[in-house]
Amino acid sequence: TSQSFEARIIKDSLPLECYMKTRKEVASKSSGGMEIILSSLENTQDLQTTLNILAILNELLTVGGGCRTGVFVSKGGTALLLQLLVGSSKDPPANEELMLHIHSLLVKVGLKDRKLGVKARLNGALNVTLNLVKYNLQNHKLLLPCLQVLRVYSSNLVNAVSLGKSGTLEIMFEIIGPFSKKSTTLVALDTLASLLKSGMNARRAVDRGYLPTLLTIYQDWHRNDTRHRHVVIRKSILGCIKNLTNIKLGRKAFIDANGMRILYNTSTVRKCWIKFHFMLPACPDTGSTGQYLQPNYEEVLSKEPPTTNDDIETDINKLRPIQMNTRPFDELRAYEYFFRDLTIFFLSFVTFTPHIWKLIHVVIRCDHFLFCSQDDDFESPRSVIPPSSVNSELHRPIIIPTTPSSLGPQNRRPPQEDLLTPKPDESPLELDSISISKRPEGTSDPDLVCSLGRLVLDAGVNGGSVDGPQDEGGEQAVLEVPDTAALLPLHDPDLYLEMVKSTRSVPAYTEVGYPDYFGHVALNLREPILERVYGVQRTKIFQDIERLIHPSDILDKVVYDLDNQSCPVTDNGESLKFNSKFESGNLRKAIQVRKFEYDLILNSDINSNHYHQWFYFEVGNMRPGVRYRFNIINCEKSNSQFNYGMQVLMYSVQDAINGSPHWVRTGSDICYYKNHFSRSSIAAGGQKGKSYFTLTFTVTFQHKDDVCYFAYHYPYTYSMLKMHLQKLSALRTAQIYYRQDDLCETLGGNSCPLLTITAMPGSSSNDPISQFRSRPVVFLSARVHPGETNSSWVMKGTLEYLMSCSPQAQSLRESYIFKIIPMLNPDGVINGNHRCSLSGEDLNRQWQNPNAELHPTIYHAKSLLQYLRATGRTPLVFCDYHGHSRKKNVFMYGCSIKETVWQTNVNTSTCDLHEDLGYRTLPKLLSQMAPAFSLSSCSFVVERSKEATARVVVWREIGVQRSYTMESTLCGCDQGKYKGLQIGTSELEEMGAQFCLALLRLKRFTSPLELHNHNSHLLDMETDLIETRSIPNITSPTTYVLEEDEPAFLEEVDYSAESNDEIDPDLEHDLQDNHAPQTPILTQSSAAKTHLTEIEPDSF
Description:
This protein is of the alpha+beta class. It is an enzyme of class 3 (hydrolase).
C-alpha cells in the first residue's frame, strides 16, 4: 500500500511513456496487479490509504475503458466496493470523499457488470445510496454520482419495486423541478423513468398526482428552453409520461389532466405510448366478413430484435444439394402428361409427311421410354378437395358499377333508359341481350355513365331468356366502350366478361371493376418519384391529434361496411361512395371522420387474421377541386416505399371514356407511419405489442361524380390472365409450339394454367422428338403472392415476347422448352388477398413439404420439377417472379454455398466451398441489358427463414444451380436509365422481354461450342465475386421476418430557424436503429372516440 501511494505521488515525475506502460501492466489480466490492489483495499484499515487506492482505481478505470473494468469485475471488485460502501455507512456520518469515490467507481462498473443491481440488493447497498441522496439534496457534488448509481440499481425490476416502496419516487420529484441549470435534473429524470417502468411504481405515482406535475414541469421546460439547448431533458420528461400512460390508470389521468392539449400546444411531443380501445378487423371465419378480435392493450412491448443477423444458414450439409430423389418415379409418372412435347403425344398436334411418320415409329421403338397409345385417355392431376366454400353456381349475374353523371339535364338520356338500373323486384338484364359496340377512335360520349346507371349482366343459365329493361324501340341495350384494340391487342372487354363468369370467388362477386373491363393503356410519359415535402408526416399526425382537441369536427360516420350490408346510408350526396365487391377488390370498411377525410380498413387475407396491405376499391360521388384525405389505418409492414416517393394508383372512368384509359400515379402529402392501433398477439403471430401502420394520401378529383379506382399497384386479375392467354393462343403460328394445360384445381375451384412454349421441329428434321429432347428446360412461375401484381406484368412481357414473331424470339424458342405457371395463387388473386391462398398460408413457404389438398398448385408444380429431375431433364433455369415493397429497381435472389459461408464465421475447407459460378451469369447479363435491373441489389445468401421457398428448395432438392427469385420494385428505380422514375407497366413488361433476351445470351455460355468463352466468363465472375466480398454489405441484408428491410425514413431534425444545436445522441441512436420501437401519441379515432397515432423521432 505504501508503494502504491508513493507511485501515486511520483506520477508526475515519471516519463509519460513509462507511466502509461506501468498503468497498462498493472491492469492487465496476467500481471496480477489488479489482485494486489484489491487485496490491499480489502485489508487496509486506514481511511487515507483507502482513499488513495480508490483514487488509483478511479484513474485506471477511467482511462482503461471496458477492458480494465472487465478485469476489475472478474477479480471481485464489485462485491468489494459494495462491502466497503455498506461497512462505511455503519458509523455515521459517512466520509463524503469516501462515498464520492465509491459511487464514482460503481457508476463505471455498472456499465460492465450486469449483475450489479442484484449484488447491491443482496449486500444491502440500495438503502445506503438512497439515504445518501435523501440527506444530500443540496450537495450536488455527491448527489450526482449517487443518482447515477440509483439509475443503475433501478434497471433491475425487483430493485425498482423495492426502491419505490422506500420513497424513491418522492425524492426524485424533490430533485426534479421547473426549468433550471442543475446538472442533476437529467440523471434524476432518467432514474425516475427507469423506476416508472414498474407497473406498481407507475400506479403509485398516478395515485399521488405526479402525472399532472410532470406535465407542468414539461410545460415550464418547453417555455423556457427557447434555444432548444435542453431537448434531452424534455425528452426524458416525456419518457416518464410515456411509462405512466402504459397503464390504464395513467391514461385516464393523462386525459383528465388535459395532457393531450398540453402536448399538442407544445408541438414537440416525442414519446408517449398510449393505447386506447379500437376494434379492428381480424380473421374472418368465412368469406370476406367475420368477427372482430379485441386487442389486449395491456401487452408489454416485445424486445427489439438483435442487430446481428442469425438467419444465415451455417450448416454446410443443408447447403449442399440433395443427391437422391425424394419421391419414387412411379408416383411421378402421371406428370408425363404435361411433357407431351418430349413424347409421341405431341404428334397429335403436328402434321407430318409419311416419310417423317416412318422415322418417328423407328424412334419410338428404339426409345427407352414407355409410351401409351394416342387413344388412351390422360387426365391432368387435380386437387381432390372440393370447392366447398365457394358458390356452386358457375354462372351468375355480373354487374359493371357506375354512378350518375354530373352532366346537366339537357344532356341526360330519356327517363326510360334510366331503367337500366335494376330494381329489387326486377330480374337482371340478360347478357345475351346486351351488345357491346366500340366507338370509333377519337370520339367520346361523356354521358355514358349516366346511361349505364348500374348495369347487370346475366350469363343466361340454361339458355332461358330473362325479361330485362330495353329501350323504347325494343332493341338491345347498347354499352359503348372506347376502342383500345390498336393499343391493347390482348384486351377484349367481351372476352373479359366471359372469363369473369367462370371465375369462382369466396364472396361470389357479381360486379366488374371498370379498369379490368376497359383495360389499361400504359402512359407515354414518365412519372417521376414523388419528392417528399419536409414535415408532411408531422403535419398529418397533428391533424390526427386534433380529432381529440376538436371533437366537434369528428363525424364518425360509417359509409361502407362489408359486415353491414345496409351501408352506405343515403346522406344527400355529402359523403363519398365506396365499393370493393369485385375481383381482386379489397376494402372492408370506410369511416368518414371529417367532411373530406376518411379512415379506411382493409380485409385480412381469407382464413388469416393478418396481411393487410393490398387495396383495390372504387370511389364515387366526389366533388372536383376538393382535397380528400384517405387514411388506410391497418397496414402491417413496418416500412414502405410510400415513404420514399411511391404514389398510389388511380383510374378515372371519365378519363377512360374520354379516351385515356390509364392507371396513373396520384396523391400528395403521402406518408406511412406507425399508429396506436394494437394488434393482438394472435394477429401478430405470437409477438406482443405490435402496432398497425397508417398510409395516408391526399387526392384532388378532376371530374364531378366521376367513378375512380384506387390500388396499391397496377391490378392484374385472374380473369385478365385467362383473357390474355386466350388471346395469346390466337397468335400461334406454324413455327410456334404452344400448349395450355390445367395443372390442377385450386381450393376455390379455379384452374391453374400451365403453359408450354417452344419451337416446332424443323421440316427438314428426321427426328423431331430428339429436337425437343435436346432443348434444355426453363421453368418460370409468378404471382405466388397475390399483392405482388407487378410480377404478373413482368410475366405478361415474357409471354408476349415468347409468342412474338421476331427472329430473336424464334431463336429463343429453338433453344429452350419453356414450362410456365403464370399464376401460382389464383384464389388469392381473385379474393383480394395480399400474400396467402385460401388455406391462410403463404404458399412460398410450403415448397419443402406441400400438401396436395391444401397447397395443390405448389404440390403439382414441385412434382413437375421432380419429374424432370427423375427423367434426367433438370431445368437449366428456374425463376419465380415476385414484387418487392421495400426496395427500388429489379434484382435477383439466388443461392450460393460460397457466398453464404462468407457471410458467417464458419470455418470450412476449400473443397466444401467449391461450386460453379454460373449462377451469377444470368444476373450479370440482365444488368448489362435491362435498364431497370440492379446487380448490386442482388443477393445469393441462403437464409434459414427462406429454406422452404421455391428458390431454395428447387436449388437444393431439384439441383437447379440457376434457381432465382426475381424481385421487381413497386416504386421505381434509383439507378440507370429509369433513375428517379416510378415504374410502370411498360417498364415491367420490358423487364419480362429483357429476361428472355438474357436467356438467349445465356445459351452461349452453356453451349459446348462456346465452352472456351464460358471459362473466361467464369473467371470474370470470380473476379466480381472477390471484389463484391471485399465491399461490406454489398449483398442485400437478410431478414428476421417476412418483410424486407429498408432503412427508416429520416426527416431532418429542425426545431427552429435559428437553432444550431447538435442532434440529441439518444435521438441519433434511434434514427440509426432500424428496429427501434416507434413513438406514438394520443389522438381521437373516428370509430372509437379516441385513438393513438405515432410521431416518429425523425418527424421534427
